[in-house]
C-alpha cells in the first residue's frame, strides 16, 4: 500500500507539497490555483506559549506581564489551521519549555494534525527525560545561542558548556537550527557562530538582527551593514536564514516561496491569545471562537 505523507497547500504561488518528517518542500509553481481553492491559513504560525523565562537578556522583546496560553485552545487552533492548509506551528515565548504542559501540547498537536511541530528554546530546561518525552512529537527545534564562549556567558548569564549539552539533547529529538541575535556584542562572532552550528550538527543558522525595545535601540546601521556583507561573502557549512527585519531583500538567504505575501507566509499568536502579523507587531486581533476568523480580520485590517 502506498503511504501518502505529503500535506498539500494551495496558494497564489502554486501547489505546495510538504512532508514534515523529511522537511521536504515541493512547489508546483506552474499550476494556477483558482481563487476559491486558495488555502485560508497562513503557511506558518508561531505561538508564544508563555511570557515566562528565567533568563534576563537585555534585548528580550517578550512582554514582561505574566501570560500563558491554555493547551486546549492551542490544540483547537492547530486543528483548525491544519485543515485550512497551514504547514507548521512553532512554539516560543518567553521560554516555551517553561509552560507546564509543553510536552503534552507538542504530542497532542503532532497527533491531531499533519503540521510540522517546532519550537525555539534557550535549552537550559532540557533534560534527558524531557527530550525523551518530546521525541516523535517534534519535527524541528531551534536553539538560541547569542555569541559563543564568554560572549554567550555575559549575555545569557549561563555556562556555554550548558548550551553545548542542550544542543546534543535537542539533536537527539529532531533536526535543529541555531538562532542568534545579531547586535554590537555578536556581530564579530558570525564566523564562530556558523562553525558552532556546524559542529553541533545544526542544519541552519537563523540570524535575528536585534529589534528595538524599551530597553535597547536595536541593531545599529553600521552593524546591519556588516551583517549584510558577512551574509553575502561567508561560506558557512550550514544554511543561512534571516528574520523579517528589513534586511532580508539584501542578503542571499533562503526564500521558501519567492514573492509570498507576508500574511500568507506567517502570523503570530502572543501569550495573551492575540493574533499579530509577526512577533514584533504592536497591533493584532484577539482570537475569539475561531482562529480563521481572526486570520481573516487581520488580513482585512492590513
Ligand atoms: S532567553 Fe529569550 S525569552 Fe528568555 S530573556 Fe532571553 S531573549 Fe527573552
What does the model show?
The structure is a single chain. This protein has 302 residues and is an alpha/beta fold. It has one domain (40-301): TIM Barrel (Alpha-Beta Barrel). The protein is built from 9 helices and 13 strands. α3 links the parallel β6 and β7 (140-144). α1 packs parallel to α2 (102-112). The longest helix has 13 residues, at 71-83. Iron/sulfur cluster (SF4) is lined by residues 53, 55-57, 60, 62, 93-95, 122, 144. This is Radical SAM core domain-containing protein.
What is the fourth-level CATH superfamily?
Answer: Aldolase class I
Q: What is the number of helices?
A: 9
CATH class: Alpha Beta
Largest β sheet strand count, sense and barrel closure:
10 strands, mixed
Termini separation (Å)?
A: 46 Å
| Domain tally | 1
Question: How helical, in percent, are the residues?
Answer: 25-40%
Gross geometry: globular
Number of strands: 13
Mean pLDDT: 94
Specify the structural class.
alpha/beta
* Cα gyration radius (Å): 19 Å
